[in-house]
Write a structure and sequence with these properties.
Largest sheet: 7 strands, antiparallel
Strand order of the largest sheet: 6-5-2-1-7-8-9
Number of helices: 2
Oligomer: single chain
Radius of gyration: 16 Å
Shape: globular
Number of strands: 9
Distance between the termini: 18 Å
Length: 137
Amino acid sequence: MKQSQVKIGKVSDYLYALMTQTKAKKFRAGFTKKNGEYRIGKFDLLNRSTWKQTDGTMYQRKGKKRTTKADEYILAHDLDKKAPRNISVARLKWFSVGKKVYKINRLELNDTITIVMFEKVKFNHLKLLMKKGDINE
């Protein structure tokens, strides 16, 4: 039998706490996009107002407020494609911060109750997660 901690609250708040508790500023994540495609990348949580795009031009945020809900999406900056991304909390498969790798398992009971388990996996499983998105044990 495996013993686990139970926390009641918003999943996005717990995710932000896990991502910011180390001194590492960057994290990797694997998630499923809206079209069903699996995507991995390097991200950080800095809120940038201007950034350099891949073609070398500077982009400035237009000053409009956020259009997605903070409880449902993580607003992160993609370090590979150099643009902001909204990562869905519901479609997030795994993330790693520093040397800690967390695999996320979800069980939706109904519209209001969802059980989310953050399973800590070994760091050497990161390569498998980046290729397939899952660990077949």
